[in-house]
Amino acid sequence: MASTILTVGAIGACAMLALGLAAVGAAGATAQRVTAAADNAALAAADAASGAVFGAPCTRAAQVANAHATTLAGCEVAGLVATVTVSAGFAGIGVAVTARAGAPP
User: Fold this and answer.
1) Mean pLDDT (whole number) for 85-93
2) How many CB atoms lie within 10 A of CB 70?
3) What is the pTM of this model?
């Protein structure tokens, strides 16, 4: 009887550990997704600012951010340099990443 209780406790502890690790992994994946979205949105805005693609730079950045299931929170274009901030949520916590693209400083 005691070994049954011990086994059930060990299985419960392993299940809780697995759930915790899955949550940490999902949070890391969300952070990487938002980072990729910010990088790509900044590149799209810089391309539009340089004339390589048609459209307004911030509109292009918003399109790319939406394609990554994120939201464009900010967009600034100074010459050929675009700085964008992209945000998304994970488990009720907001994640925001800023990226810059364009000519080197």
Assistant:
1) 89
2) 25
3) 0.80
